[in-house]
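Recall that a protein's primary structure is simply its ordered list of amino acids. Everything else, from secondary elements to tertiary packing, is in principle encoded there. The following example makes that idea concrete.
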Amino acid sequence: MILFAGTLPLRRPLGAPSSTYRLLLLLERPFYWRLGPCLVTRAMKRKAVDARGGPKPKRPREALPDYCDTETQKDDSGTVVWPAPQDAIEGAREFIRNCAASERKILVVPDKDADGLCSGAIVHRTLTALGLPPASILVHFVEKGASVHDEAERKKMQELEPGNIIVVDQGSRAGPPLVEDSNVKSLVIDHHLSDNFPEKAQVYIPSGSAF
């Protein structure tokens, strides 16, 4: 908590070094400084203590397996399944080629983190490289805290009147079709493992594919 005795002046008082005054406004660390009628202090946090008066012991973290130690998925022949089953790879490739050839509006719905934005850019470049005009590619970002399964987001996507939808880095969970229009086909490209997906969606993920 920051306590103010008096009011911090909006302008630097005469005689106060400008660099010091900026520190009073910008620094995010404990400090004490008397400036004219103003005294600014920051309350110090107290460490948690147990009943015996000593420092409270930290709760041990749950041990999780390292990503590299996760067992690799293999098909019936013993071949490593990576980055996804071959049928899912071929299905996603065909879906994207059909999108580029359809000359319909394609809606790309990427997640807003680093891998979502990068994968969305790759999909956009792939579609244009296959001949789809950039003007035919629409991009939609869901609102913070929402998902593509929320009714409000489904309505927004429907209002854009897409021919097909490509969702990247999200969407791998059970839900209704992404839009109500049965003529709109959707592809979910995701790296999150899941066994549940939107209804009537073609899925490209490491664990398999669904239609």
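The radius of gyration is 27 Å. The helical segments are 18-26, 86-102, 114-129, 151-159.
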